[in-house]
Specification:
Shape: globular
Helix content: 25-40%
Radius of gyration: 16 Å
Distance between the termini: 49 Å
Length: 134
């Protein structure tokens, strides 16, 4: 096997191990640098796709480090259609929130695909996100 073939097989192997059962959803993340860091983390953990409910977005090169090239980015202008589409695909929606009903990540059921919604740095998750969450 040549070096080129070996490298191609390494890439194919990594792609086969991508995590499709966990999807981050970013809702109105205010700072481009923070959204880019989330993209880098998602790519690092092997997530295949990220949903962004926001206006126009350009990754921050320093924070994303090119991770956006390896992710399937879905941009949405409204939260409800994003959540509806994920739920139609069998995902449960959980929000990252400091709430009286909050559970630790270890308690999140993973018997079905999971979408984890992160709110803005300024206001956290919206009331709409809370109402749509499982």
């Amino acid at each position: 096997m040549s070096i080129l073939e070996a490298r191609q097989e390494r890439v194919r192997s990594a792609l086969r191990r991508r995590l499709s059962s966990v999807v981050p959803v970013l809702e109105a993340v205010y700072r481009r640098h923070n959204a880019s860091a989330i993209l880098r983390s998602a790519e690092c953990f092997g997530c295949h796709e990220v949903h962004m409910v926001t206006g126009p977005f350009r990754p921050s090169k320093g924070a994303a480090r090119g991770a956006e090239r390896w992710l399937e980015l879905h941009r949405h202008t409204d939260l409800e259609p994003c959540v509806r589409d994920l739920k139609a695909r069998g995902f449960r929606l959980f929000v990252a929130d400091l709430d009286a009903r909050a559970v630790s990540p270890a308690e999140v059921p993973i018997d079905r695909p999971v979408a984890v919604l992160f709110g803005s740095e300024l206001e956290g998750v919206s009331e709409e996100a809370r109402s749509l969450a499982d």
